[in-house]
Amino acid sequence: MATSTTPDAALDPLPILKGLASLRKFGGMYPAGHPAIAHKLAEIERVLQRHLEAHPVIRIDIIHGEAHLDGLSFRHTDAADLRVAHELSELGIDSLHISRGITPEEVLALAALLRELKEGPGPVPMERQLADRGIRHVTLGKLVAIDTRWRADSWDEAPAEIYDPDYAESIELMQSTFDHVQDGGELDLDTVRHVVDLLIRKVAGSSAALAQILAVKLYENLTYCHSVNVATLSLLIARQVGFDERTTAALAEAALLHDIGKTRIPLDVIRKPGALDKRERAMMEGHTTYGAEILVEVEGLRPLTPTVALEHHRGLQADGYPELGDRVPHLFSQLVSVADIYEAITGARTYQPPRQPEQACLVLARLAGGKLNAALVKAFVAAVTFFPVGSVVRTSHDEIGVVLETSAAEPLHPVIALATSDGGRLPGRIDTATRDAGGAYVRHILQTVAPGEIRVGEFVNP
Ligand SMILES: [Fe+2]
Ligand SMILES: [Fe+2]
Question: Do 209 and 240 belong together in one domain?
């Protein structure tokens, strides 16, 4: 459970829900303008502003009675905490988005609306109800309904085009390996070793592959791609922290197989848009123990491989799942967790579109010290940088370019190539770390942008 001393506590959406619940109740008990209401309102305002300073939109989803902020779960064991999230779900609301600019009047009107919803949803669509009350910075919805509406089959199963042949081979081999295990076959150790070798020798050092692994991934990230990506990202951390060859190989194997337990979970549960029910959720969480079970049976694997499968959803403070008592996860598991979360955030999911690397790095930074090992997050962000190879970026000269090279010395000023108006590559390279005579940078990277028409492959292919 998050406490006020952990960095990620600031991100916990529960105080917002609790504040709204209290305000809803107070509104029914006290007359408008009563000091108790004003006091509660001021309290919520403070929490909201703290969140909104960091993010333009607060996205709270209630999935299985737990509050998720931007897709991340904040587990609460306290019965009162759980009740607050349940209450909202019972009103028919699984999804509450609050955007910057919300006024105290809107918060009060929202609490009043929630109070009325208790009497039943009524025939008026939610959007109208919000608009009628002047609530312009809030959307409310059913998670499942929203998800199925905007997602449907919008994501392909794998990247449409793979730039690096070794990366392509790794994905292909892992797909057939996982398919075989799914069909009840044995894990093919030779293939696993071959892929580990490919990832270490080739993929982790290939700009073309990293461009696809680090950037936003516009495909439904199924287990085989995800596994190759997480293993490659884990290698970047291993290199940054200076693991030796043996340790690196053991880590890559564990990372590659961390989610193998998902082969025992029906695909429709893995791909299900929207919230999972209690049974499906338990099934999904079971991929950790299933994974460990599968892997301990395989002779010839390295000893930590089943451990990582078991522990990769456990947090530093012995939170997460499965329940394993007070045991702190092994360093390998901690490391794979960092890569796993980055991969999840930058990948398309049934319930949310992918997010840009810099946003993913910020989420990791906020989880550092709480759920995640801060030193490993630091190593990861240093290796990846906010604008990784292959990112499409906008410069302070209003140019669009693609990152070709990053450096630890100048993490915010990569080497880029500029794009032509039709999305191709202009000849030449620009080092954005270049300074003018006065020592000021000539260019800054302002932000990562969606690739759109930019043919990133043309930029990063050797
Ligand atoms: Fe997992
Ligand atoms: Fe994973």
Answer: yes
* pLDDT recorded at residue 153: 37
Predicted local confidence at residue 163, as pLDDT: 84
DSSP 193-222: HHHHHHHHHTGGG-HHHHHHHHS-EEEE--
Structure tokens of 4?
């006020």
Give the distance (Å) from ligand 2 centre to CA of residue 271.
14
Of the candidates 379, 402, 430, which is a domain's last residue? 379
Residue pair 185/236 in contact by the 8 Å Cβ criterion: no
Distance 155 CA to ligand 1 centre (A): 20
* Structural domain count of the chain: 3
Ligand minimally distant from the alpha carbon of residue 341:
2
Distance, CA 367 to ligand 2 centroid (Å)? 17
Instruction: Give the lowest-confidence range in 213-217, 323-327, 424-428.
Output: 213-217
Ligand nearest to the CA of 285: 1
Let me know: does 419 contact 400? Beta carbons within 8 Å.
yes
Distance 223 CA to ligand 2 centre (A): 7
Beta bridge partners of 400: 394
CA–centroid distance, residue 374 to ligand 2 (Å): 19
pLDDT tens digits along 229-256: 999 999 999 999 999 999 999 999 999 9
Let me know if residue 119 belongs to a domain.
yes
Q: Is residue 156 part of a domain?
A: no
Amino acid 1: pLDDT: 35
User: What is the reported pLDDT for 441?
Assistant: 93
Query: Do 366 and 431 belong to one domain?
Result: no
- If asked whether residues 118 and 208 sit together in one domain, one would say no
Question: What is the residue range of 48's domain?
Answer: 7-141
Average pLDDT of the chain to the nearest whole number: 85
Residue 155 lies in a domain: no
Supply the pTM of this predicted model: 0.66
Region 70-81 average pLDDT: 65
Coarse DSSP helix, strand, coil percentages of the chain, rounded to the nearest 5 percent: 50, 15, 35
Cα–Cα distance, 317 to 6 (Å, whole number): 10
Rounded to whole angstroms, the Cα distance separating 271 from 47 reads: 34
